[in-house]
Amino acid sequence: MTSHADGERDLISYLDFHVEAGVDAALDEHPHDRFGEAEAPPLGRAPARAARPAGPEEAPQRRELPPRDAPKAPPAQTYGRSAAAKPDEAAVDARAQAKETRSLEELEALLAGFDGCPLKFTAKNLVFADGNPASRLMFVGEAPGADEDRIGKPFMGRSGQLLDRMMKAIGLDRSSAYVANIVPWRPPGNRNPTPQEVSICKPFVERQIELADPDLIVCLGSPATQALTGTKDGILKARGRFYPYTLGTREIRILATLHPAYLLRQPVQKRLAWRDFRLLRAALDGRA
Ligand code: URA
């Protein structure tokens, strides 16, 4: 017989398995059996007596489970201020609103009230920035993970600790750099943000850069590099290079490098990141 303690252990290892696999965000109060829904006969219809091909008027209906609670989040495809808005409209909306902000505090408040990105509805917190916005250097990562989502600040987990060590190796810390992400809400289960989500959020990070006004930006990983430089190159090709970035009336530079999360998975590549960080130090010292 299975004891209560065995049952509890099984449940914990089942949950651990899901967390390990990245399934760590609850999107609804109740589970949905999507496979069962696809297979089961539509609700309210008697099973077909004889198999015959369904005509267009008999296209199988989706079997909807009755809602037990009012939904907490808007439907997955709701973008912008109205449910009818499309992702590109949400991006235009975001651009117009972001441009009007006059300070980083205003921009953060605007983002906190912006409903145009569906990621907001699955995230626990807005993850706006950390570090010193008055510094000459800004790091831009991809999107918050579970630790950042819980704490509400970027680069707080294992990749954040590695980033701190890399900064320390060239004499920097969070008082000498400003840190943000392309997307300020955690994608569920740590998946990559979609191109739509990036394009909706991009006007905000562009405004964040304008308001922080750094002399140099370091893009960590491919999504940040591609979004801010426009390159289509993968990060292993794009890294270690400077790209021009127009900031108001000045042209500053972006340096692309490897994301610390990638370095945790591929420690042998740290030597490339070390090269990039030495180049960063040289740029800050006016030697590159
Ligand atoms: N990875 C990122 O790109 N950003 C974070 O804030 C944390 C992990």
Structure description:
- The protein has 11 helices and 6 strands.
- The protein has helices spanning 4-20, 34-39, 87-99, 104-113, 146-151, 158-169, 195-212, 222-229, 235-238, 260-265, 270-284; strands at residues 130-131, 137-141, 178-181, 216-220, 242-247, 250-257.
- Helix 3 (87-99) packs parallel to helix 7.
- The model is unreliable at 37-84 (pLDDT under 50).
- Uracil (URA) binds next to helix 6.
- Belongs to the uracil-DNA glycosylase (UDG) superfamily. Type 4 (UDGa) family.
Topology:
Blueprint (H helix, E strand, L loop, with lengths): L3 H17 L13 H6 L47 H13 L4 H10 L16 E2 L5 E5 L4 H6 L6 H12 L8 E4 L13 H18 L3 E5 L1 H8 L5 H4 L3 E6 L2 E8 L2 H6 L4 H15 L4
Parallel strand pairs: 2-3, 2-4, 4-6
Antiparallel strand pairs: 1-3, 5-6
Bound molecules: uracil.
Which key phrases capture this entry?
single chain, 288 residues, alpha/beta, Uracil-DNA Glycosylase, subunit E, 6-stranded mixed beta sheet, 11 helices, 40% helix
Give the biggest beta sheet. 6 strands, mixed
Reported CATH architecture of one domain:
3-Layer(aba) Sandwich
Task: Report the mean per-residue pLDDT as an integer.
Answer: 82
The helix count comes to 11
CATH C-level of one domain: Alpha Beta
Helix/strand order, N-terminal first = HHHHEEHHEHEHHEEHH
Alpha-beta classification: alpha/beta
| Count of β-strands | 6
CATH topology (level 3) name of one domain: Uracil-DNA Glycosylase, subunit E
Main-sheet strand order equals 1-3-2-4-6-5
- The share of residues in helices is 25-40%
Family: Belongs to the uracil-DNA glycosylase (UDG) superfamily. Type 4 (UDGa) family.
Keywords: 4Fe-4S, DNA damage, DNA repair, Hydrolase, Iron, Iron-sulfur, Metal-binding
EC number: 3.2.2.27
Protein name: Type-4 uracil-DNA glycosylase
